Amino acid sequence: MSGGYVKHPNVFDFISAVFRFILFWLLVVGQLPIIILLPRGRISVAYMRVFMWFLVKLAGLKIIIRGQLDKRRPLMVVSNHISIFEIATFPIAFGGSFVAKKELRSWPIVGWIAEKFGVIFVDRRPSHAVEALRDVQECVTHVKYPMFVFPEGTTTNGAYVKPFKSTLFNFVENSNVVVQPIAMHYRFRNGDVISDNDLANHYGYFDNKKIDFGPLATRERSAFMQVFHIMLIGGFRVEITLLPTPSLVGLDRKQIAEILQKQVSDKYMELKDKTEKEITK
After folding, report:
1. Residues 5 and 234 sit within 8 Å (Cβ to Cβ)
2. Which of 61, 62, 156, 180 allows an S-S link to 237, with CB 3.0 to 4.6 Å?
């Protein structure tokens, strides 16, 4: 295992980050007329690639993909979730849209854009579980593009993969929905391993005041400040490994959740501390 280091920004890095952050929001505002005119459906979902491309480039992200996305449809792709940047990198890598928490809809500008881009918002409160599940099922089983789901239910500090919530897999039982797992991990831009401590303090995004994420903890940032922070320290690399699609015939939702979580967790823990040479040799 080799490890790089988090850049210590100077005044020029700060000025550059401020410039890129402002430029990103100017580009967002400049695209609003286009987004307004886009018809809902495959065209607006496809345009999300263009929209997110600006964020990825300005934030200094690199995307590495290993494996192939399943060509069968309907397709639900499940992944671990470290920060908001998965929402930017997955559409660029594969197209498609997301299942997201309801709170995202209330974010200024972002919520409206996400809805236009085909994001399905679900209320995770137990009293709304049936309604949320119906919304997910309606979308996943009818669209011709992949839908991405983060079954952990939240972002983490990247030290491990939390158990998957089984509720979202209710409609997968005895259905024709193909479910493909993804193991996604972060590296420094040069391919060096990011330590758990640096991952938690600089790259992961979560509210550690509300959730127990184990021994690692970091100060909480807003989504917007997380974007700025990554611009400030020079970006990072997102490596996406597509895993084999398991046979889920005859399994109930809890068994499905456990199998998928194990696939993702095992691969994530295998890859996150390996050097690039160890992975590719």
Report:
1. no
2. 62
pTM over 0.70: yes
Q: For 212-236, what is each residue's pLDDT tens digit?
A: 444 444 455 678 888 999 999 999 9
> What pLDDT shows up at residue 14?
95
For residue 252, the tally of other CB atoms under 10 A from its CB is: 14
Query: What letter does residue 102 receive in the DSSP assignment?
Result: G
CB under 8 A, 24+ apart: contacts of 88-92: 88/52, 88/55, 88/56, 88/59, 88/61, 89/52, 89/56, 89/61, 89/63, 89/238, 89/240, 90/148, 90/240, 91/48, 91/49, 91/52, 91/117, 92/49, 92/52, 92/53, 92/56, 92/63
CB contact at 8 A, 180 and 243 = yes
Give me the amino acid identity at 88. A
Give me 98's structure tokens.
């997301």
Residues near 121 by beta carbon (within 8 Å), at least 6 away in sequence = 100, 101, 102, 104, 105, 114, 115, 135
C-alpha distances (whole Å) from 101 to each of 124, 258, 274 are 7, 21, 32
What Rg value do the Cα atoms of the chain yield, rounded? Answer: 18
Q: In 3D, which of 74, 82, 124 has the Cα closest to residue 99?
A: 124
Q: Which neighbouring-strand residues pair with 148?
A: 77, 98
The pLDDT tens digits for 199-215 are 988 898 654 444 444 44
Nearest to 54 by CA among 88, 81, 29: 88
The two tokens of residue 129 are: 């579980």
